[in-house]
Structure formats: C-alpha cells, structure tokens
Design goal:
About 55% of the residues lie in helices and about 0% in strands. The protein has about 190 residues and is mainly alpha-helical. It has a two-stranded parallel ribbon. Helix 2 crosses helix 9. The mean pLDDT is about 95.
Length: about 190
C-alpha cells in the first residue's frame, strides 16, 4: 500500500498514526489542546521524537487536563524539567501552562475550543489534492491567521509552521497525497 512519503514504514507507531489519526477531523477540546501542545513541543525537532514520547507527555501533564495544569506549582514545573518522558525545554514546558490558561479563556468566550479553532477553516476540513509530498506547503494564509490570533490570545509556541502541522494532525487540513491508501479510503467513503 502506498502511503505519504514522510511515514517511517518500518515503525508501526508511525504507520498507525498516519493511517488512523493524521488528517482525521478532531472536535474534542481536550484532544485539540493536547495536539496543539505536542505540536509546540515539536518545534525544532521531528514529529517522530514527539510521537514516541506522547504517552509520557500524557502522564507527565495529567492527561492534558487544563484544570490541573493551570494549578501547577514551581515545584511541579521543576519536576517536569527533570522528566525524561518529555522534551525538557523550560520554555516549552512553561508554554503548556500558559496555553492552558489561554485555552480556558477561549472556551469561556467561544463556548468551546473546537468552535474557536475550527473557525479558521470555516468549520469544515480543507481537502487538498497534492500529487507528492513536495507540493505540501509548510504554512498557508489560514495557518498565518491562526498563528497571529493564537499569539494575540496568549498562546505560546504557535508559529505558522506549528499551526499548519497542527491543522494537518487534527484534520482541519487533509494533506494525504492523492495516491496514499488513506486518501483512497476516504474517497471510497465519500461515494
């Protein structure tokens, strides 16, 4: 079966992520928050690094429960700086707390984080038609707008490239190449 070229075919975790998650629309607030934080953690690294640490992140950050995260003390943050299950970058760790606070404000203002974040694509996935992975952009006008607004709303580690990667991961954008098996399955379901 043909898959998008970025997939490490010899790594079952990567294949499963590509086949079952990447490009599949997500509307659950908690999961959207988790993915935004994980994409921010990826900055300067590979997604493979973060994907391998995802379970460790979930354990270290209380399942990305924002109500718990906003109460983190300096001692908890120091513990996280020593936690080998995650990327031990102080700014990235602190950004999860900052983002949790901003997330709660967004929920209050917009009713849900999902409603807010999906607004950047008019609440429907953008389906692209790329022949090869080399055609896929790293930023778009939508990711630029999202990045600018997220920063304005208090989020950290949300540059346009991170936002576009997030949009791909949570299915706001479907960038499976045209001959990818996942794309073919989606086309079959649409007919």
């Amino acid at each position: 079966m043909k898959r998008c070229d970025w997939v490490k075919l010899d790594e079952p975790l990567y294949v499963e992520y590509h086949d079952k998650e990447w490009g599949v629309p997500v509307y659950d607030d908690r999961h959207l928050f988790e993915m935004l934080c994980l994409e921010g953690a990826q900055a300067g690294l590979s997604w493979w690094t973060i994907l391998q640490k995802r379970e460790g992140y979930r354990e270290a950050f209380d399942g990305f429960d924002v109500e718990k995260i906003i109460l983190y003390t300096e001692d908890k943050l120091q513990d996280l700086h020593q936690d080998t299950r995650i990327v031990r970058n102080k700014l990235k760790i602190a950004s999860v707390v900052t983002n949790a606070q901003a997330y709660l404000q967004i929920q209050e203002k917009h009713g849900s984080f999902s409603n807010y974040i999906w607004g950047f694509v008019d609440h429907k996935p953008l389906i692209n038609e790329w022949a090869s992975i080399s055609e896929v952009p790293v930023t778009t006008d939508s990711s630029d707008r999202m990045s600018k607004q997220l920063k304005k709303d208090g989020f950290k580690f949300v540059g346009s490239t991170i936002c576009y990667s997030f949009m791909q991961a949570v299915g706001m954008v479907n960038d499976h190449i045209m001959d990818c098996c996942c794309r073919q399955q989606e086309l079959a379901h649409d007919n």
